[in-house]
Amino acid sequence: MNFAETILKIVNLNRYFKKIRLFFKKRSDYKYLKRHGIQTEFGYVTLYGKPIIVKHPNSKIIIDKGVTLVSDPRFNPAGITHPVTLATLNDGAEIIIHKDAGLSGSTICASTKIEIGEYVGVGANTSIFDTDFHAIDPWDRKFDNIENTKTSPIKINDFVWIGGNSIILKGVSIGNGAIIGAGSVVTKDVPELTIYGGNPAKFIKKIILKHETYNNLFDSHKE
Ligand SMILES: CC(C)(COP(=O)(O)OP(=O)(O)OC[C@H]1O[C@@H](n2cnc3c(N)ncnc32)[C@H](O)[C@@H]1OP(=O)(O)O)[C@@H](O)C(=O)NCCC(=O)NCCS
After folding, report:
1. What spacing in Å lies between the alpha carbon of 196 and ligand 1's midpoint?
2. Does the beta carbon of 182 sit less than 6 angstroms from any atom of ligand 1?
3. Is 56 labeled as catalytic in the residue annotation?
4. pLDDT tens sequence across 210-221
């Protein structure tokens, strides 16, 4: 065997071992998610570091194909400070993460329902809470907190991009293709194809699509 043939053999072997390593990583990620009660399929979710999953027994966490969860700061230069956290807090609570969404060090706490659309990017350290966790009235907070805590579902539609360190609060719906500026606190609905930012998040500007019509962009990715 000459030098070139030896190199080729080494390269091929390397590729082969890489494939094997990838398979075992996928298998370990899948097992981890299933062990924590996540509804998903083999190979659907890519994990960079292990997320924290706190699932109430009578609740659902569903994760679709192509989703990436980044929990290890070595895999995101934006500086994530903690692992992705997915928590369902009550009977019937739901977290649904649709196709090709990506979350970095984000926290999702659902008491009712939180839905993340396709191709949504959730920036580093963002929190999404569909509950206030605590009642407004101090008496209620001490003696009857759960009954008196306000909760309302959240829907983040397709192609939304949420800047790092933002907080999305209960009842909010964010329209297709909208952008939330870094460090925003979103308390009200955000219309599609707009940029909102600040605390509380306010309208900044409209997004003008450069290359495709609205319908092409939002229809083309559907299978
Ligand atoms: C929202 C964003 C995309 C807008 O970028 P842009 O189109 O270049 O906007 P500009 O910088 O021209 O700012 C437009 C206006 O919005 C304001 N603005 C921009 N970002 C803001 C934010 N995060 N919060 C509040 N206001 C903001 C600007 O001050 C400016 O206000 P003015 O018109 O009164 O001067 C960008 O500012 C941002 O926040 N990017 C997120 C980056 C990030 O978090 N990445 C993490 C990894 S996903």
Report:
1. 8
2. yes
3. no
4. 776 666 666 655
Please give the number of the atom of ligand 1 that sits closest to the Cα of 122: 48
Q: Over pLDDT 70: what percentage of the chain?
A: 94
Instruction: Answer whether 102 contacts ligand 1 (Cβ < 6 A).
Output: no
Kindly name the residue from 36, 82, 98, 134 that is annotated as catalytic: 134
State if residue 197 touches ligand 1 by the CB under 6 angstroms criterion: yes
pLDDT digits (tens, 9 = 90+) for 32-43: 999 999 999 999
Give the pLDDT confidence of 62-108 residue by residue, as tens digits.
Answer: 999 999 999 999 999 999 999 999 999 999 999 999 999 999 999 99
The model's confidence at residue 209, banded by pLDDT at 50, 70 and 90, is confident
Compute the distance from residue 70 Cα to the ligand 1 centre, in Å: 23
pLDDT at residue 15 tops 70: yes
Q: What is the pTM of this model?
A: 0.91
User: Helices (DSSP H) in 53-181: which residue ranges?
Assistant: 138-143
Pocket test of ligand 1: the residue of 193, 195, 199 to mutate, having most ligand atoms within 8 Å of its CB, is 195
Whether residue 122 has its Cβ less than 6 Å from ligand 1: no
